[in-house]
Amino acid sequence: MPDVDADPQCQESRATAYSTLAAGQDVRTELEIKRSRFLTVLRRTDSEAAARELVAELRREFHDARHHCSAFVLGPDRDVQRSNDDGEPSGTAGLPMLEALTRRETSAGSADLSDITAVVVRYFGGILLGAGGLVRAYSESVSSALDAAPLVRRSRLRICSIEVPHAQAGRLENELRSAGYVMAATGYGGLNTVLRLALPDSADSISAATGRLLSLTSGIAVLTPEGTDWVDVRIP
């Protein structure tokens, strides 16, 4: 089931969709380049505090590593972008990591990746890579991790609800899913289940969903538009 999170940015953002890492699934990869080990961790993060907490976690876990370089992109409009070389020569680590994130093309056909933090932990292997070698190593480390990353499409959608008796909810939900509708969070009351649909925020979409529900429930359904939320939908 898609995740739905209330977010004040729904009303403020210019963007209506972007790609991000699936929630709760850190990605870890490792490259060895001229005896140096580059361990990359990707995590979905929705704030600078969460991004910096990942860096702190990895400093504790890999306390004997020489460098813990980082980059992150946040927000539907990707308006928060930060990077840190953590002791590597200026511009050879954090910036190429950030560019690997911001220039990554997703299944949407554009570079729209956001709400993601990358940390590359380096164990120095005794061989100097030079500025160009470091840029390539840090960029490749993040790119390789992104190759393995499960991505989702995060869209700003209109949430609409319908209350149905508990005994009918499972059948109706299955029929809606089979019809291609994206289901949001389900609620439960004393007598009824509250099913929620995530629809494109347009009158036509709501009208079409209302017609489908009337057909499926023999004219009983009442579809109630709620606010807009950011909804995760897995990319097939």
Report on the architecture of this protein.
Strands 1, 2, 8, 9, 10, 11 and 12 form a 7-stranded antiparallel β-sheet that branches. The protein has a 5-stranded antiparallel β-sheet with strand order 3-4-7-5-6, sandwiched between helices. The longest helix has 18 residues, at 130-147. With 236 residues, the chain is of the alpha+beta class. Helix 3 (94-102) packs parallel to helix 4. It has 6 helices and 12 strands. It folds into 2 domains: 26-149, Ribosomal Protein S5, domain 2 (2-Layer Sandwich), CATH 3.30.230.30; 153-234, Alpha-Beta Plaits. It has helices at 9-12, 48-61, 94-102, 130-147, 166-178, 203-216; strands at residues 4-5, 17-21, 27-33, 36-44, 67-74, 80-84, 116-123, 151-165, 182-183, 187-188, 192-199, 224-234.
Describe the oligomeric state of these chains in a short phrase: single chain
Named at the architecture level, the CATH assignment of the largest domain is 2-Layer Sandwich
**Number of β-strand runs:** 12
Overall 3D form = elongated
- DSSP helix fraction: 25-40%
Which regions contain 5 or more consecutive residues with pLDDT less than 50?
Answer: 1-11
Compute the CA-based radius of gyration: 22 Å
Short description:
It is elongated, with a radius of gyration of 22 Å. The N terminus is likely disordered. 31% of the residues lie in helices and 35% in strands.
